[in-house]
Amino acid sequence: MDTGAYRVARAADRLRAAFAVAVGMNLAEALWDPDGTVWRLARAAAGVAFLLALAAYVVLRVLRWRRARAERP
């Protein structure tokens, strides 16, 4: 399994994007009180996207750390 720095960087970019969407949705909810099924589904989708991006980033960082540690003499 290849866990190069570019994969970690891509995962970090996805995590940043998911975080920005979540913050934007929280700001929209604070300024304007959206309601309805569509908003709830969008909030749930943003939450799932953030959790998946976070999990992918953490897993890739741990795998890269373990590989670097195993390659040391």
Could you explain the architecture of this structure?
This protein is mainly α and 73 residues long. Helix content is 85%, strand content 0%. It has 2 helices and no strands. It is elongated and about 60 Å long. The mean pLDDT is 88.
How many helical elements? 2
Overall form: elongated
* Uncertain residue segments: none
Let me know the largest β-sheet: none
Distance linking N and C termini: 21 Å
Question: Structural class of the secondary elements?
Answer: mainly alpha
**Helix percent band:** over 70%
Strand content: under 5%
Radius of gyration, in angstroms, nearest whole number:
17 Å
Average residue pLDDT:
88
Order of helices and strands: HH
Give the beta-strand count.
0
Kindly summarize this structure in a few lines.
The protein is an all-alpha fold. The chain is built from two helices and no strands.
